[in-house]
Amino acid sequence: MRTVMQHPLVVVMEGDKPCALISDAWSEHDYPKELSDLLKQNFHTISYREFLQNPVLHAPKIQAILMWAQSPAAEPSLLRSLPSLKVIANGGVGIDHLDLPFIASLGVKVTNTPGVVSDATADIGMGLLLASARKIVQAVGHKTNNLPASLMGFEVTGSTLGIIGMGHIGYKIAQRGKGFEMKILYHNRNRSAEDERAVGATYCENMDDLLRRSDFVMLAVNLTPETTGLIGQRELSLMKPTATLVNVSRGLVVDQDALVKALQSGTIHAAALDVTHPEPLPRDHPLLGLPNVLITPHVGTDTYQTTRRMVEVMVENARAAVNGLPIPNEVKPQ
Q1: Any catalytic annotation for residue 44?
Q2: Which of 90, 149, 169, 314 is at a distance of 20 to 30 A from 65, taking alpha carbons?
Q3: Predicted TM-score (pTM) of this structure
């Protein structure tokens, strides 16, 4: 019986590898081969397409779902068809696409990858802020002389950054904002005085106060019933007409119809979004036609280093659950 090396430094016997259902994305997209190999070193992998071709054969063997980009979708009919399923290992932090109480009722564990995505997501947040403020995308291809006034941007250094959601990602964003000598305001998840001093942040107990004072409002909250529609017409009306909204959380945190109206009317200056609802937006969606909107296709975690670490943590979580060991990053129903 041959052996396979598991990362990091764990030997997995070939015959002992459990079966895992994986997304078709691993074969359809250009992910580094070593990452899909990492899955295969630890599991007998069955793509969702393979599963659908012969569910009767595959269903009894599957002990884990390795979910990537919310795929395979955790439909109740699928989950009920997998009698040996022990864990859904989600790649990423957000688990709003998973019905935790229902999954728990089946005796199945859920895990995610907290902390792993913080730096990459904070980077894309600051990248969007800078690109929007200085109109970098619009300026590409223009000659260096006789630039139109429409390309004149806003100074980032010394401006006020309001962060809504001061968790792992929000705090990383604050660290980056400090590097630009920004004044940092934050709401939600009151941090320690030591944390505040480290990044020069000031807590706003009232979110409305943060909205009124900020030049840039950065959304970094988890999607919950409380944060769904958190930023709507009223909240946008409180922002400065020169302010920019940056969203690296989830699309449903923002009322997109209200955002379109605010951008069209000049209620706020601009929006920079790495997330929308749905993803991708329909081609005729009004957000796509506005000159003061910058949209990236949910690429916050798409760096080689972060993707690799996410896969490693998914594997660690799933193997622990399958083997009945303490699970490093279990997510339990509230």
Answers
A1: no
A2: 169
A3: 0.89
Q: Which residues lie across from 221 on neighbouring strands?
A: none
* Cβ 311 vs Cβ 38: under 8 Å: yes
The single residue of 250, 269, 309, 319 carrying the catalytic annotation is: 250
| Selected catalytic residue, list 176, 269, 298, 319 | 298
Using DSSP bridges, classify how beta strands 109-111 and 270-273 pair: parallel, antiparallel or unpaired.
Answer: unpaired
Span 38-77, pLDDT tens digits: 999 999 999 999 999 999 999 999 999 999 999 999 999 9
Structural domains of the chain in order of their starting residue, each with its CATH number: 19-115+303-331 (3.40.50.720), 117-137+152-295 (3.40.50.720)
Of 50, 196, 279, 330, the catalytic one is 279
298 is catalytic: yes
Max distance between CA atoms of the chain, in angstroms, equals 71
Beta strands 244-247 and 216-219 are parallel
Confidence of residue 324 (pLDDT cuts 50, 70, 90): very high
Asked about 197 being catalytic, the answer comes back as no
CB within 8 A of 267, min separation 6: which ones? 236, 237, 239, 241, 261
Strands 270-273 and 293-295: parallel
Rounded-to-integer distance, Cα 121 and Cα 136, Å: 19
Residue 30: predicted pLDDT: 72
